[in-house]
Structures are given as structure tokens and as C-alpha cells.
């Protein structure tokens, strides 16, 4: 059994070395996540109350299918919508972030389960998965109005390495079936082309760069098939190889989503914030701490949050979609807004890639010394 | 550092849902990303894509393609495609798995296999009619048409649109 133990240790050591961050960085990331969820990802769910029971076909193997026979009533969905906003505000401001995260995850997974009963599972699981991992990182200990109590199971290294493994496995599930069907040298058979034309003519999406792809040679889709599969199957290798390789893969992932948005009009913006968990924000910590101590800045933050909450509440009550808060809800404006966001995410990850240094010493200690980890010394001893 | 026990449990928790999806029973929640492994075949510079679309009659009795965004509001527009593929909610009873021997299986598949009750159908018809009315269509019937589109791989334009079948749903 020793060899299994060795493999396990080597696997997690490599994952930790590729993903490590400190508690200060993650505290900044918590605020960023809150702002992202408050201003960028703004879906409501009360519209489901209006749906007839005939549409209620939940996934056979889902929690909702065990006890529900219909969509929930309007009151329950309104409560869910308001709960989501309240928990996001609590995450942003750092009001018992761990509890806020749990409330958010339970509510979000529940309402999404109902939404997927409409006939299709949209794969937005990374956001709840990231939040679940982060709730055990200690990200609610700093830059918080009402911080979490330090817990013995808080560990930045554990949570980030676990999150990275979940991302890798998620991509593996996407790439595995594609690899079986797409990887061949039959130039007349193509998977990317099916995605493109199905998106264009069946789902009637209008990607910005569709005209370019429509006139592109058919073999270009075959290249897309190969690169897509390679990209989806390689994150485990990148994670285990080095920090630089992992960060480069994250940059490719953000670029992949940008290309998807441009050519297929498929937007997975929730994944953007998940990739940003691996950026080192420690240098921003002192700046943010000083900035939020200024009274005028506090007022500005409160006004911004009240504005965003106000917009979201009106959207819940009127069923009007919001999209990115601060931008008018126009399809094209929102699309270009998302493009700018993905570009910004790519640039931020690129800067992190260029500035990343090998910083594995404390985390190797974490790997080698269970006792140190047990005492939770590693995560909190890192200085900035 | 995570123990071998934790890693093993994690591996099982990740792998089992993935295997279930390969068997067409995707669970939720699970760490699974969209796959979509289907392909199209190009023959002499043309591909064929099958498309289902919802039509309703305007006030003059002409069949018109239903605009998803306005029809589905406030639900997300892309879900109309899912509805169309699920017979607009007019589902029919399916044979029970294992001849209905196992109550647990019957219970899990109740929404998938059972026919809608008359009350559910009335509710469904009213929901569709309300949306048709809001969008200035007649409310007596709708149809789902299946087309086979022949698309040029040179310019991506639809060269031919062949009607494969039409399904009518009476709403009155």
C-alpha cells in the first residue's frame, strides 16, 4: 500500500505546487467573486412559477426528482431569488462568508435543478464547486466585516488543489466522448461544424464572427476538432507538470471561451471567475485594505452595492432581464460587454502568467509535514 | 495533504456520474461539462442538418415561424428548442422499464414515462395560448415542422430546405 500512498502524495504535491496561494490573495478573490456575482451573473428564477406542470421533466438522477412533482410556487422562487442576492452581498462584504456561501450553494443548486427540469442540463456546476472549495480556504478571515471563525479544516492549499482537480476532471468529461468521435483523419466528418451550424440555424444564435467561419475552408473545422479535444484532455497534465503550465492552460481556457463566444455565441461567463481563483492577488491586499478604510470609499462601496441590489430586486419583481448591471439590456451591448469581460480575464491571467514565480517551499512543507498542516500554520504564516 | 481514502472517495464521486452520463442518465449535481460529440458529414461540399421549428398562424391564417425570445418571455429563449424536441410538453406514456417490476425505478421515471393528466394538458394549452395571443397569433393550433437543411460548406448558406414532417397540436 506504500506505493499508493506515494502516488497520492506526489499527485497532490504537484497539484498544490501548481495552484498555491495565500489567504490574503483569496480574501481579495472573495470580494472579486462577490462583485462578479452581483454585477455580471444576474439570472433570476421566479419565472419558473408560471410554467405548466407538463414541462416538469427533471433529470431522473437528481435531488428534485426525489421529492418534487412540479415547479415551485412564486413565493418560494421569489424567496430563492432574494436569498441569492442577500448571500452574494454577504460574500462581498464578508459577513460570515462561509455561511453565506453554503446558503448560496444550496439555493443555487436547488433552483438550477428545477430549471434543468425544463429539459436540458446546462453545465454551470463549476461556480457552486468553486464556492464550496473556497468556503474551506479561509477566504472569509480577512477583509471581512464579520469574519468567519478560523476552523481547523481551513486550508488554502487544499481548497485550490481540489478545485483544480475538479476543473481538470470536468474538462476530461467534455473531451472524452469528443475524442472517440472526433479524432480521426476523415476530413469529411466533423464535430465543430455541427456545433457551429446547429448553433447558427437551430438555436438561432448570431455569433459576431459567424460570417468568417461560414466562408472558412471545411478542414479548418477539423483543426478545431483536434485542438478542442487536445485542450480539453490536457489540463491534468498541465496541473501536474508545473505552476506555469497550469496558469498557461488557464489562459488557454479563457481564450477558448472567448473564441466560443466569438464564433459560436456560447457564453460560459461563470467559468471566468473560477479560473481567476488561481491568480495571485496578494499585492492588491494592502492597497484594498487601505482603500476600504477611507470613509468616502466606504460610502462609494455602499452606494454601488445598493444600486446593484436595487437593479436586481426590480429585475426579480418585474421579470425584466438585467444582464451585466450598468449596461443597458440590449442583446448586442450585452454581447460586446461579455467580450470585453472575457478579454479582461485573458489579460489578467496573462499578466499573472508573466509574473508568476516558483514559490513552492512553504507548500512543500505543507505536503511533507502533516503536523504543520494539522495546526493550520502553513496557510497563515505566508507573508506578503 | 489529502489522504488516500479521501482521494479514493473523490475519484468514485467524480467517476460514477460520468459513467452514468455515458449510459445516458446524466445526474445532477455532478462535475460534468458539456460534451456534444455528434458530427456532421460533408458530401460534395454539402452537409445536412436537421432542424425542428415552431410555427403558429397569424391573424390572416398564414403559418409563421415563432420568434423564441418573445414567445418564451420571461423564460430563456433557447429553452424553446428543448420544448420543441420534447413535443411541446404533449408527452405520451412510455413503456415502463423492467416491465414496471421495481417501484423505485417507476418512481424515478414517473415524470419521463407517465402521460400528462387532462388537468395538466388544459394548463399546458392555456400557457401556450396566452403566449400566442400576446404575440398576435391565432390560438387554435401550433405545429412543429422538421426540416432537413442542406448547407454549403463553401459559404455556409442554406442551399435547400426539405420538409421531413409536420406535427400539429390542437389547443382548443
Gyration radius of chain B, in Å: 21 Å
Q: Number of domains in the coordinates of chain B?
A: 2
How is the biggest beta sheet of chain A arranged? none
Cα radius of gyration of chain A in angstroms: 22 Å
**Number of beta strands of chain B:** 5
Most strands sheet of chain B: 4 strands, antiparallel
Low-confidence runs of chain B: none
Strand order of the largest sheet of chain B: 3-2-4-5
Uncertain segments of chain A are 360-384
Class of secondary structure makeup of chain B: alpha+beta
Number of helices of chain B: 6
Query: What does the overall shape of chain B look like?
Result: extended
Mean pLDDT of chain A: 89
How many domains of chain A? The number is 1
Distance between the termini of chain B: 65 Å
Strand content of chain A: under 5%
Q: What does this protein structure show overall?
A:
- The complex is a heterodimer of chains A (384) and B (172).
- Chain A has 384 residues and is mainly α.
- Chain A has one domain (8-381).
- Chain A has helices spanning 2-19, 23-39, 63-67, 74-93, 97-116, 126-134, 156-182, 192-202, 210-214, 218-233, 235-241, 243-264, 269-275, 282-293, 295-318, 331-355, 361-368, 370-374, 378-381, and one strand at 189-190.
- The two termini of chain A are 40 Å apart.
- Chain B has 172 residues and is of the alpha+beta class.
- Chain B has helices at 4-22, 68-72, 79-85, 103-108, 110-113, 118-134, and strands at residues 40-41, 46-58, 63-65, 137-152, 158-170.
- The chains are: A mainly alpha (384), B alpha+beta (172).
- Strand 1 of chain A pairs antiparallel with strand 1 of chain B.
